[in-house]
Amino acid sequence: MLPLTLSEIHLGATRAWENTVLSLNPSAERAYAYGVVHFSSSQRDAYDIDRAEYFFRRAIALNNRQPLAYHQLARIAFLRGEFSQAMTYINNELFLNPEPSPSSYYMRGLIRGYMGDYPEAVTDYQMYLTRKPANWAGFNDFAWVLVKDNRPAEAWEIVLHGLASYPTNPWLLNTGAIASYELGETERARSMALDAARFALALSEKDWLVAYPGNDPAVAQEGISTLYTAIMQNIHRASVVTATPATQTP
Amino acid sequence: MTSEYENFSVTPIRFASWIFIGVLVFLVAHNDMQKDSLSRRTDAEVKFSDTSSSGMSIVPASCDSDPHYAGECDPPCLLLNFCSGLQRWQRATSCVETLLETCSYACSADACIPPPPPTGNITVTPDLIRKSATTQVSWSATDVSSCSVTGSNGDTWSVGSGTLTTQTSTTLTRTTEYVLTCPALDGSTFRDTATVTTAPEFRER
After folding, report:
1. Quick check: B25 pLDDT over 70?
2. For residue B44, is pLDDT > 80?
3. What ipTM was predicted for this assembly?
4. Do B44 and A78 touch (CB under 8 A)?
């Protein structure tokens, strides 16, 4: 189908321009910068993960130590669900970059968490939070891998730490509900999950894209639904346990 | 002397060159558009919710996995009412905060708490005296702004709070009623009374 709108023609012309400039004056920094433009969830029109990948690969071809280029390839592989590939990229980034970004540890913790390697993921989140000790998503995801590693008491401590600064964050409230449930505090779990639902209902697509940068803006609504559905399931589970009377022996 | 611009004219060759360049840009754009439709879907993270050992659903985030948007990793501003001292505020999704009202008594759990109804009492000790004796008048009240006590014999005291207060009456020659009156925090007026009785005198004949 032919491009019909002016914005599509403009986009195509911009891409032709990027190709031309990079061919005439190749540089790893420029290739990386073009990749970033196409990998931003805040730029709906320019978002193109394949094109971003192409530019990050060009950047590495031009300079194997281009800071964050492997990191970005890891993010792309992660979004595609190619976790082993993502691990290879993020390890390259941490090995080649003499001053890795704290985000690279965050990214490796995330990949390891998705792969089910929780003890190692815990280590990565500890490294990340040592460098950036006030990020709400860092608290949330650290608590996630602690819960998965059967350490709910530690997860609860981390959630409390996060909620002290972000009391209305639905992710943190939901994770707090889960840690509470795992600790046998079902009434608290139910109450926190209800709060999480209340605040999740107020989330906009823009809010969700802040929490999940790099995702296609077109799927933000699906992401909000996933969060809300998870919270509702937790409310149900906690409510059932709270309402069930203790078994009595005759 | 004529400039280059004055000599400029649209020749058929120039016109054809412009058309050629225009078509070239169009084809490159079109080619990229076609590539777009082949982009692989990337929703591994979008639909992911993990489960705890008890089956609860956890949803990790990935904010700050992008090193370029750390500043945008701030949590979303949600529509929220909250208390700050006696003031009740609303935070809009734009993160702008607006003062809704100043509570008269207390602000808690996003709402103004009304003051409780007043309580208190007044007593006289002893409540039976001989003529020309005195008595101790005591009173206290809660959730009031001030109190005053007035006796039917003309005694009056006033206190700027409801704390326990004791005063000695003037000498009483007849039964006297003391009235405690306190404006309350909820807008009502608290009232209580106590009576001291003078015993009749008996004389032998």
Report:
1. no
2. no
3. 0.74
4. yes
Query: Residues A102, A184: one domain?
Result: no
Q: How far is CA B97 from CA A119, B76, B78, B89, B133, in A?
A: 42, 14, 11, 7, 64
- Domain stops at, among A81, A116, A133: A133
Which residues in chain A have Cβ-Cβ distances shorter than 8 Å to B45? 78-79, 212, 215, 223
> In terms of residue numbers, what domain contains A93?
49-133
Tell me the whole-structure pTM to 2 decimals.
0.63
Domain count across chain A: 2
Cβ atoms of residues B166 and B182 within 8 Å? no
- CATH code, A129: 1.25.40.10
Task: Assess if residue A219 is contained within a domain.
Answer: yes
Which residues of chain B neighbour A148 with C-beta distances below 8 Å? Answer: 50, 52, 58
B10 and A CB contact within 8 Å: no
- A71 in Cβ contact with A93 (< 8 Å): yes
Nearest to A230 among B31, B49, B63 (CB): B49
Taking CB atoms and an 8 Å limit, are A3 and B63 in contact across chains? no
Average pLDDT for residues B64-71, to the nearest whole number?
68
Alpha helices in A167-219 (DSSP H): 170-182, 186-200, 205-211
Residue A34 lies in a domain: no
Q: Do the beta carbons of residue B189 and residue B182 sit within 8 Å?
A: yes
Q: Is residue B68 less than 8 Å (CB to CB) from chain A?
A: yes
The per-residue pLDDT for B110 is 80
Of the residues B23, B28, B57, the best mutation for testing chain A's interface (the one with the most A CB atoms within 10 Å of its CB) is B57
**Chain B closest-CA separation from residue A26 CA (Å):** 20
Residue A164 lies in a domain: yes
User: Which of A92, A116, A133 is at the close of a domain?
Assistant: A133
Distance separating alpha carbons of residues A49 and A69, to the nearest angstrom:
14
